[in-house]
Amino acid sequence: MASRNTSLKLGIMTKQLAWPLFGILLLTSCATPRQPESAKSRFNEENNADIVIRHYSDEVNRVLKPLQMQGPFLSTFDKGGILDLATQQSGHELAVVILLKSNTSDNVKQDWVKILKEAGYKRIVFLRADTPGLRINGLPVLDSIGGKAT
Description:
- The chain is of the alpha/beta class.
- It has helices at residues 2-30, 37-40, 79-88, 106-118, and strands spanning 51-55, 61-65, 69-70, 73-74, 94-99, 123-128, 141-145.
- It has two domains: 1-32; 37-145, Rossmann fold (3-Layer(aba) Sandwich), CATH 3.40.50.
- The strands form two sheets. It has a five-stranded mixed sheet. A two-stranded antiparallel sheet has the order 3-4.
- Strand 3 (69-70) and strand 4 (73-74) form a beta hairpin.
């Protein structure tokens, strides 16, 4: 008889706990982590960009648009060389800077904003490099300074 009472009590307790546990499970399954807005936005204005720079360090930068080559290799520029080249471009609407994950700090961005604003660019977009290739469209947008996206 005692084991039957124990089984009956366990059955009632299980039923009483089932609904709250089901509610908790339902709530946690609906709670998906939100990505920052910048992680959701992907760049798609490569054709509108007047200059595209891939930044590795202050001394090593590659210009992907207009493509700058030394034979079969991409040319390397320091920031002073980039300023000279950026100033010479016919358009100064949109400049794009592609940053590696390791160099996306605000200081790096501020340096580029100063250089590219000095060269006359109205809008500067920072992208995060996610592959070693030359792809530009589809990269995640980190930040956009000045002007509006078209």
